């Protein structure tokens, strides 16, 4: 059984007991969260596609940790003009574990 869920503006294919990294979510570590924006649910050969959401279905997950991703270096330069800019960025992520898919 799997579902396609919209989490923080991105779509993820999730299954029970799967751990995924999503953009930073509000909530404490160990807290349980619920996603009602389920776009598709598949249970064996039975597939339900929402228009836009599957009614009555939800996905529950547990927040495992908040962390930061790898550093990305942004470097801009214009040749022969003396223009150089170097910038770094680390995206904030939340690691969650899918606990249940209600169909």
From TrEMBL:
Domain of life: Bacteria
Organism: Solitalea canadensis (strain ATCC 29591 / DSM 3403 / JCM 21819 / LMG 8368 / NBRC 15130 / NCIMB 12057 / USAM 9D)
Pfam family, one: Ribosomal_L21p
PANTHER family: 50S RIBOSOMAL PROTEIN L21, LARGE RIBOSOMAL SUBUNIT PROTEIN BL21M
Protein name per UniProt: Large ribosomal subunit protein bL21
UniProt keywords, alphabetically: Ribonucleoprotein, Ribosomal protein, RNA-binding, rRNA-binding
One Gene Ontology CC term in the entry: ribosome
Similarity-based family: Belongs to the bacterial ribosomal protein bL21 family.
GO function terms (MF aspect): rRNA binding; structural constituent of ribosome
Quaternary data: Part of the 50S ribosomal subunit. Contacts protein L20.
GO biological process: translation
InterPro entries attached to this UniProt entry: bL21-like, bL21-like_sf, Ribosomal_bL21, Ribosomal_bL21_CS
